[in-house]
Design brief:
Blueprint: H1 4-14, E1 29-36, E2 47-50, E3 58-59, E4 68-74, E5 80-88, E6 101-109, E7 116-119, E8 127-135, E9 141-149, E10 159-167, E11 174-175, E12 184-191, E13 197-204, E14 209-216, E15 223-224, E16 232-237, E17 245-249, E18 257-261, E19 269-270, E20 280-286, E21 292-298, E22 308-313, E23 320-321, E24 329-336
Antiparallel strand pairs: 1-2, 1-24, 2-3, 4-5, 5-6, 6-7, 8-9, 9-10, 10-11, 12-13, 13-14, 14-15, 16-17, 17-18, 18-19, 20-21, 21-22, 22-23
């Protein structure tokens, strides 16, 4: 535990704390869910829901001051949302996240009711974060990132952040990646449309870079998708047909764009094509019908350049604004349409 400050500094350097978007359930296009910071310091952030054109914005969660709800992911049914809640750590316990913040995973109904803790962090000696949840295609499982102290991992500051899978009722948790000591941490998992694989981000502290990887849900078949030089990740996402992986790239030139590539790494395309002095795009999500992409970019509306949510075609063309507020809005996920007679659950 004496090396935990080094862990946190390294996590920050590698971008582990970057807000992400989540995987997309196939179907007809429904509502968007995103995190909106209520203050310039980004210390308080509820989840909001809106139509894809930005109409009918409503607050979904109601965290108290100093608490941030983020990394939302729609269940395939469109009835619930899994998300990460970051809050000040309890007094006297370990500080399990960045800046003395603690992270756990909740779910909530689409009407904002039925808040339920899904994956706790026990705040004992070993647990340091539980975040970035993502539903399986049939809604029976949730993948997430889990960070623990592990004395075997001397090459990564006695810290291990791995991808885990848990049943949707909170039972049967099992580890998928980082089963042997190494020098990297994994985050941002998303199930493939057939439920057989996960895409995730691996941060290597020796290379000081991120890359997108895939792995089978049983932990076999680990494969690298993007080169380390692209420094790619930040909530990779599959389209409904599984033919692409969507992600943000932040190479050494200082740019920040939305890219896509085939799962084997071929066909790499920069969709937004912004230079370092241009717009900076953040995490992104395919629409349920696979024809559109929702993301966020900065500078947006307002004098401080806070990020706005935008929608574009799947080829990166015809970008249009969804939100135009002076507040920072990002970490957006596009959910499936729910018929009017299936409210709330």
């Amino acid at each position: 535990m004496s090396r935990l400050p080094l862990v946190l500094a390294a996590l920050a350097a590698l971008g582990i704390a970057v807000s992400t978007a989540s995987a997309t359930a196939p179907g007809k296009n429904g509502e968007l869910v995103f995190r909106r910071y209520l203050d310039a310091g980004r210390t308080t952030g509820p989840l909001f829901v809106s139509n894809p054109d930005g109409s009918k914005v409503r607050k979904l969660t109601h965290p108290i001051r100093g608490v941030i709800d983020q990394e939302p992911d729609w269940a395939p049914s469109g009835k619930r949302i899994a998300f990460e809640r970051r809050f000040p750590c309890p007094a006297g316990g370990p500080k399990n996240g960045l800046n003395d913040k603690c992270d756990v995973v909740y779910t909530v109904r689409r009407d904002g009711k039925g808040l339920k803790l899904l994956v706790p962090c026990d705040f004992a000696e070993h647990c340091h974060l539980v975040d970035m949840p993502a539903w399986s295609p049939n809604g029976s499982k949730v993948a997430y990132a889990y960070g623990v102290s592990d004395p075997r991992y001397t090459g990564s500051f006695n810290f291990d952040q791995a991808i885990w899978i848990v049943d949707a009722n909170g039972g049967g948790a099992r580890q998928v990646t980082q089963l042997t000591p190494g020098t990297s941490w994994d985050s941002g998992p998303q199930f493939s449309p057939d439920g057989k694989k996960l895409v995730f981000v691996r941060a290597d502290h020796q290379k000081q870079a991120d890359a997108v990887f895939t792995v089978a849900v049983d932990g076999s078949g680990l494969a690298q998708v993007t080169p380390w030089e692209l420094d790619a990740g930040d909530g990779p996402d599959w389209p409904p047909d599984g033919k692409w992986i969507l992600f943000r790239g932040q190479p050494a030139d200082g740019s920040s764009n939305v890219y896509k590539a085939h799962p084997d790494g071929s066909g790499l395309v920069n969709l937004t094509k912004q230079a370092a002095n241009g717009l900076h795009y953040l995490s992104s999500s395919f629409s349920p019908n696979g024809r559109l992409i929702v993301t966020a970019r900065t500078p947006g509306t307002g004098s401080d350049g806070a990020a706005d949510v935008v929608v574009m075609r799947a080829d990166g063309a015809h970008v249009r604004a969804v939100t135009k507020s002076p507040l920072w809005e990002s970490a957006v996920d596009w959910g499936p349409r729910v018929s009017s007679n299936k409210k709330g659950h």
